[in-house]
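Supplementary Note 3. Input sequence used for the single-chain structure prediction.
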Amino acid sequence: MTLFDFRGLAARALAAATLIMIAYAAGAQTLALADLRAKTHIHGIAVDPKDGSRLYLATHHGFFVVSPDGQATRVSRDSNDYMGFTPHPTDPSVLFASGHPAGGGNLGYIVSDDGSQSWRQLSTGVRGPLDFHQMDISKADANVVYGAFGGLQVSRDGGKSWKLSGPLPDGLIDLAASAVATDRLYAATKGGLLHSKDAGTTWRPAHFRISAATMVQTGYEGEVYAFIVGHGLLRTFPVLSTIG
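The predicted structure, written as discrete structure tokens, is reproduced below.
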């Protein structure tokens, strides 16, 4: 095969692959969850507050809902890359997210009030448009929102305006806001589980096990869930543990 033939073959292969990805991204899909995982990667997961048998999935190629039979259906009208994602803690019809448009760039802080079919931008944030990879809404006050972009950003008016609250912990993987107090935060990091009582201005270890923490979530009664490598999934209540 000549160099010219090889270049032509490579160009045709690239064009075919591009068309396949465009078709995948543009059309509505319903497919098995296992097939979805083979085609894209998942950035965020949450239980549908209106139906506990369904899961929300924020993915690299749009927003999906998974039904009890294991079928995943894309419900967003776009194929944007949804990175940070969280439902409203008290209004199940409202979802918040961040990430990248399919064509590139950053989405800023966005909201959907129609089950993720359409989204609109609430703010570009500090030094934006921002792209939160980790974000959460306080269960103590839904107007207080935290996100990671160029430092820890905080909004106290429901995401309309933002300011820098402090530095990001090294090796940040996940972020969770407490239901007990608006300034209380938890961070899952490569160096362990961390805790802040001053809206992320300072951080300290939240657990005596100094191992990588890959997930942290908070409950409505102050409980904290964290997965710590080598120790598994832990649950605790702040008033009863070192996490407080």
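The chain has two helices and 20 strands. The CA atoms of residues 99 and 125 lie 13 Å apart.
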